[in-house]
Amino acid sequence: MTPATVPVVIEEEAARRIARLQLQREMEQMIAWVQENVPGLRGIRVVSLRDRPSRNDKVVIKAYWDDDGTRPHRKFPEFDFIEWKLANFHWLVGQKVSVWCEPGPMPG
Amino acid sequence: MDGRTYLDAVRYLLAAPSEVNRRAAAGPLYCAALNEARDALERWGFVAPADADVDDFVYERFDEAMNFDLMRIAELLGRVEEYRDLADDSRSPPSEFADDNKVIGLRGVVLFAIDLLARSRRIPPAGRRPLRTYDRGSLDAASGSHEQG
Q1: Cβ contacts of residue B111 below 8 Å, gap of 6+?
Q2: Which of A57, A59, A76 would best serve as a mutation to test chain B binding (most B beta carbons within 10 A)?
Q3: pTM of the predicted model, to two decimals?
Q4: What does the pLDDT look like over B85-130, one tens digit per residue?
Q5: b/e for A76-101, b at 16 or more Cβ within 10 A?
Q6: Contacts of B93 in chain A (CB under 8 A)
């Protein structure tokens, strides 16, 4: 599949977190995976999640796509991503980054 | 009551589309996923201590398992919990709740996760004592992904 050309936004706090964790190279590969594997991709926004007792330093790649949740045989690229990231990165790296597919266009 | 019964409430709320109903749907979505995940852990012998924070206990058990299906459950739990927190904050952007798509999408992911949990009903092999002490390998075994014997 040809990688989609879509806007990619990395929010400030997420960028700081990625830099502190030294995950720049991994993030580039993960964003490329999203571009290649999320059908109907409309935009990508990388955000950081609020820390909780059971998890910290989490980063999410939000992939905005054309999906209204009603397709009869839905794909879940976010779940495919789990297998890919664990096959390609150290488990502790993979644990820090998630992909969430969100319906509709990327908010401005 | 089964955790999935909370999804009935989501259905009722979606039947009357509005911003407040979409926000209200986030709670039962999370309850459905959390309770089904907790029930699965208990079937496998992982019972949360009385003083444990159930959200954290359940999330950690799934997140730290070296098993794709179990990690998918953790992923879903974290995501729906974030959505619930967003929905519960009346100052969060109304644009997040402008249509039903997000709730419908998350409901689909929750149903997928509940189905995964249902398919992982295998219990530890007969003759073994129920698993009470958490370790990554034992949780994998209990979920049936690396079943032995």
Answers
A1: B7
A2: A76
A3: 0.81
A4: 999 999 999 998 999 989 998 998 899 889 888 887 654 433 334 4
A5: bbbbbbbebbbeebeeebbbbbbbbb
A6: 107
In whole angstroms, what is the distance from residue A18 CA to residue B95 CA? Answer: 27
Residues with Cβ within 8 Å of residue B44, at least 6 apart in sequence: B123, B124, B131, B139, B142, B143
The shortest C-alpha distance from B90 to chain A (Å) reads 18
Chain A contact set for B107 (CB, 8 A):
69
Contact at CB, A107 and B95, closer than 8 angstroms: yes
Q: In one letter, which amino acid is B60? A: E
The one-letter amino acid code at A100 reads W
Strand-pairing partners, residue A52, are: A55
Helices (H), B1-149: 6-14, 19-43, 54-63, 68-88, 101-119, 136-143
User: Tell me, what amino acid is at A50?
Assistant: R
User: Measured between beta carbons, which residues in chain B are less than 8 angstroms from residue A103?
Assistant: 101-102, 105
| Structural domains of chain A, ranges and CATH numbers in brackets | 8-103 (3.30.300)
| Beta strand pairing call for A8-10 and A41-48 | parallel
Instruction: Report pLDDT digits (tens) over A20-54.
Output: 999 999 999 999 999 999 999 999 999 999 888 87
